[in-house]
Amino acid sequence: MPLTLYVYFKLDETEPALIGSLADLTVAMQEDLAGSATCTRQALLRRRDDALTWMEIYEGIVDAEQFRSVLAEARSRYGLDRFGLIRHEEWFQPL
Prior knowledge:
Blueprint: E1 3-10, H1 16-34, E2 41-47, E3 50-61, H2 64-77, E4 88-92
Antiparallel strand pairs: 1-3, 1-4, 2-3
Helix pairs in contact: 1-2
């Protein structure tokens, strides 16, 4: 049964210059992940009523632990950990 991972986090409003860089790097990372067999679809969203709350979505995950490992490696490769964001994961599956 395929899983969907929702990762949400809040950006620091005192560092607006980093927001564009974070968006570019995250989209590039997600495009890279699109070529892997670990998930079928990904998206980067922001909250409608709070532009500083963002969410990454990863769908079609078959192996959660493998995907966590692939995602951690990709985040490291793209330098996303340097932003120091507190990321919250929520895993969902179809009913």
